[in-house]
Amino acid sequence: MTDPKPDTPERPQRATAEMVARIAKVSRVAVSRAFNPDASIKPEKRAHILDVAQTLGYAPDRAARALVTRRSHLVGVIVPDVWSPWESQEIDVLTAALQNEGFATLLFKTRTDYSIDPTLLTYMRGFNPDSVIAFTENVRPRTLTKVLDRAVPIYIDYPQTAGDGYWDREDEGLLFDRLNILTRGGIEQAVAMMQGYGARRIAYLSGLSRSLASVAREETLRSIMRERGLPDPVLFPGDFTYDTAYSATLDLFRLGDGADAIFAANDVGAFGIIDALRHELNLRVPEDVMVVGFDDIQQAHWKSYNLTTVKVDIDQRVQALVRLILRRLKNPHVPPMEETIATRLVVRGTVGKRG
Amino acid sequence: MTDPKPDTPERPQRATAEMVARIAKVSRVAVSRAFNPDASIKPEKRAHILDVAQTLGYAPDRAARALVTRRSHLVGVIVPDVWSPWESQEIDVLTAALQNEGFATLLFKTRTDYSIDPTLLTYMRGFNPDSVIAFTENVRPRTLTKVLDRAVPIYIDYPQTAGDGYWDREDEGLLFDRLNILTRGGIEQAVAMMQGYGARRIAYLSGLSRSLASVAREETLRSIMRERGLPDPVLFPGDFTYDTAYSATLDLFRLGDGADAIFAANDVGAFGIIDALRHELNLRVPEDVMVVGFDDIQQAHWKSYNLTTVKVDIDQRVQALVRLILRRLKNPHVPPMEETIATRLVVRGTVGKRG
DNA sequence: TTGACGAATGAACACGTGTTCATTTTACTG
DNA sequence: CAGTAAAATGAACACGTGTTCATTCGTCAA
Fold first, then answer.
1. A349: number of Cβ within 10 Å
2. What domains can you pick out in chain A, each with its CATH number?
3. CA nearest to B86 within chain A
4. pLDDT digits over A167-197, tens only?
5. Nearest residue by alpha-carbon distance to C1' of D13
């Protein structure tokens, strides 16, 4: 109350293009051009301006720039759980790649059941992301584009087998850019290896029931097993989490008929399975039950698990993602494109000789 | 080249306050007021405007708003590894809390050796974060404030014992808001328990050598052990990662003299220790060697590790963080404040009877 | 030297919003 | 009903930048 002024600018004002111009003895427009690679300005003049800007710690205000450019250089990432190993590893690599291209990652959390609060989209819209990457499938692309008109939505984990009406697919092609996982390669190797070691009753621990990623893996698994003359996989329900996988495994072996081998929808689930088998059911892995995961997260090589798993190459995925984003940002009118990442089996210690 | 126009506005223009005003038959200023809780506007008028805005999917453009308000509602988070379990779990909770308050998390990655690229600060500055949370200590607060003049920097993992000159501390108090961990409580319980089970030679696996968090834990450990008449802890160097912990443990037992118990600077390091002991050195945990971690990350309760560890309550930390941020944003001139989070031991299975 | 042409320059405008301030309307008191 | 204070309104300006367009500068050939 007795303060002299509520808004006393004690700290030095942030450097602005105007200030740089004044000190460098040039016009403000020249400063703008110095920071815009395509603008025409005499090289030595640009160098001088950048030099002055450097000493002043000046960088163009992205808010002001966004206002006129219509480019925020922000990429929104929608994710249920940041701490989930696979997602966090992908966000890590993605953030590095985006940072390299002059973008920054903007994080938004959805409910953990992978559903999106409708108000979240409007909320997100206020930040004007140039692109949106949804780590969840429970929002229809059309809904996204309706709200985020200026943003470029990209969907990942989009299974190839799930185009049957649920998703917006026009007759002549795609409506949106997509990034797919070609699950077949890795799963085929996994089944071959398990079968080679004598597994016949193979169970599948699913992810969240409505998850398209989980469904795609399940269908691929079943189709491969049929081709190889194996009985259909025993299905038991998970939700991508350790705890659920743990108790589901107990149910499978105590209430159900067990299995020779288990294929999990993701690595974390596989960890839950392994721990339930070893520490609660007194079964050996792989001698009594083989386990295969999906993702190949960092933790998969930890010695306690040493998990044989289907690897999805994160670097490849992120490169493809960034490629898609930049392509569409450069020209919003190019037709939607779809990139596909292959998978392969990483052999460690959870598949092996029986007995 | 033959395209009609490069800028054809095919998709509907994003709704603006102007459009809302026109449809709702009010002035644009009224729309602004409707979205500003403190502004004075007739309640039914506001309701009507918000209603129209709702159907148009309108939300105020934060870039434009930031330009005049000087508030971007962005909180920058500087972190070396997003996927690192502890960091990703804290980012997860923090993002949820910030989202709840109308802010969004902006992610920036530093080099993995925890050092900050000087250009990153200028880069970050362009985005005008209202506040910056640094998950790394290798940047001096003063450097940060120099570049991010408008932002409110907050430091976490700031050890209480490390105020000796390295950090900017004025005689009369703090220069910046801080969040501390009171390591003593949890470590004291851990040492007492290990000693109770007969451990005498206790080793400390450090984090990154220059990490203040690691140094603080080490000093607290040593001081407690001295008070209890134990010999100084054997120090062996880690860097918070699994792999380094693993090989460092092999060195400790093959080249060095081993230990009765090991206290790790973080949980992930403890996992590496446990796996090296069990799977490579054929030692039992806790019967041959006890292990205690620090953090209590989600993975600590996984049955393969079942780690006894010093818990830092993430929810408490995030609540304190958000409190600090909002407080300073509300009034940038309040004196810096320091909050401290207590720790406590979570007892699981890696400390127990010897033999 | 003149002419012409491309490169470089700066004035003015636009982006979408919050805020100030003078003005008008509403509500309440006597 | 008159009078007054409080509440609500709208015009104009500001925020910091990119961009357009008419103008000026520089260069080189004739």
1. 13
2. 17-59 (1.10.260.40), 74-182+314-342 (3.40.50.2300), 184-312 (3.40.50.2300)
3. A83
4. 444 434 566 787 888 899 999 999 999 999 9
5. B68
